[in-house]
Amino acid sequence: xxxxxxxxxxxxxxxxxxxxxxxxAGKKATADGSVIVTYNADAYVLYGELYHTEAADxxxxxxxxxxxxxxxxxxxxxEQVEHTYATVGNINEHxxxxxxxxxxxxxxxxxxxxxxxxxxxxxxxLQRARTAREAIGVMTSLVEKYGYYSGGESFTIADPNEVxxxxxxxxxxxxxxxxxxxxxxxxxxxxxHANQSRIHHIxxxxxxxxxxxxxxxxxxxxxxxxxxxxxDFSFSKAYAQSDYLSYRGCDGRVWAYYNRFSSGMDKYLPFxxxxxxxxxxxxxxxxxxxxxxxxxxMMRDHYDNTPMDMRKEPGRGSWDSPVRYAPLTWKxxxxxxxxxxxxxxxxxxxxxxxxxxxWLPDAIGGVLWFGVDDxxxxxxxxxxxxxxxxxxxxxxxxxxxxxxxxxxAFWINNWVANQVYARYSLxxxxxxxxxxxxxxGYEANQPLIEAQALxxxxxxxxxxxxxxxxxxxxxxxxxxARYKKLGEYLLMKYMDGRMKNEDNGQFAKTPAGYPASxxxxxxxxxYYRKVVEADTTxxxxxxxxx
Length: 546
What we know:
Layout (H helix, E strand, L loop, with lengths): L1 H15 L5 E4 L9 E8 L9 E2 L2 E2 L5 E5 L6 E6 L3 E2 L2 E2 L2 E2 L4 E7 L14 H9 L5 H15 L5 E7 L4 E8 L7 E7 L5 E4 L16 E3 L5 H5 L12 H5 L4 H18 L7 H6 L8 E2 L7 H7 L30 E4 L2 E4 L9 E9 L5 H4 L1 E6 L8 E4 L24 H14 L1 H36 L1 H33 L8 E2 L2 E2 L17 H10 L12
Antiparallel strand pairs: 1-2, 1-14, 2-19, 3-8, 4-7, 5-6, 8-9, 10-11, 11-12, 12-13, 13-15, 14-16, 17-18, 19-20, 20-21, 22-23
Helix pairs in contact: 2-3, 10-11, 10-12, 11-12
């Protein structure tokens, strides 16, 4: 039985590998002074829905049942606290936001008897903490008391004033708890993590901006992972298991973010592509202050306009597709190859960009720009942290991975996306137009809605909550309905490999009202040449008839 548990744990680690992305921008690195963090929750079995818990008071001695987030497996019970805060997705009512990405740790550092997994750690902490520093204390106390079940993990922990990256790994079966380190990202910098341990140097003397477990170095020494002086210690090298794909497919995503907004990043390409050279830093200073839209668009990146641009390499096909289906590695003649792993991917369950603002009341200041499925083809909808009712399109139980629902945003978005994947460059502009139209509307509405919410808040906070909850619900439902229309439009326009012409926004008709003959987009020149080159017998050549 113990062997079976270890095998399942290893399989879970493989499933999570190369799976999630989190981007970070400090409050002085953003155009409006907000802290911004993101999350692509990527897994082929993760259904895109919006979690919600109400604030509650609890009786002394009450216990909380813990279920592993990835598998819904029951792990055990922990003591409940006297009061828990309301949460919406990965944010709570006090604008605390926590997200993650998983990385491969040394396999002996796995405690299958522990109660707390990384997902439960996030959602339990959101119910118990008000600030990022408080959250670090809650998280580390929980795993110290109840053990840590998951593998290596990087957490983004943010509030309206500061943002931290904390990395954690279990001590294994022989010793309960975890070793960890947390570093505060400077306010004027950007940072990221994407399934690769990112903390190397630890500034032990900077008590204001660096927190760590007392045994973070001594445990590594005891296990034989490190010899040398504390100042030479690297958390990543001691506890993570890294290979070529860790640098290329994981740190590569971090590099893409840095490269988009900070000059001089070419010097780190050898680290990403060749796993050598200067180590990619934990954070960098951007050339400009970033907007929410800047970071939303970054979450849709496929290494655009870089040496790894997926629209320009051989796997792009006839329609310049950035989509690569699993597995991402394969062998030909015993030589192993890979596809790039970008930030945007079809395996995303849900995606978010959290906007946290210190100058506003929490109910108004915290916005979870939330979407489901592939971030490059979905819409970021405004979900305020005071939300008291989840939109029907994101509601838990409205469909699941094995049951389709026409009112589920996840299924509607997948329907649209899977039409696009087959002929990307042909269909993507139609999706981009609708996506931009919706998000432009949100951007224009935000100051108007929030100004009204502020006026209501001064009179009665409950009225502001009602306004923002209604707005969040209506926005998400409208976007889902609009995408359903988009899916119908794509199916009709591109049916059977043809493309209907349009006239003033309507499909073209003959003078008699009959459908006009559709165009035939065909394939690109490269495709035709490859077919001719492979047709060595000229089987497909049109011959002259005499």
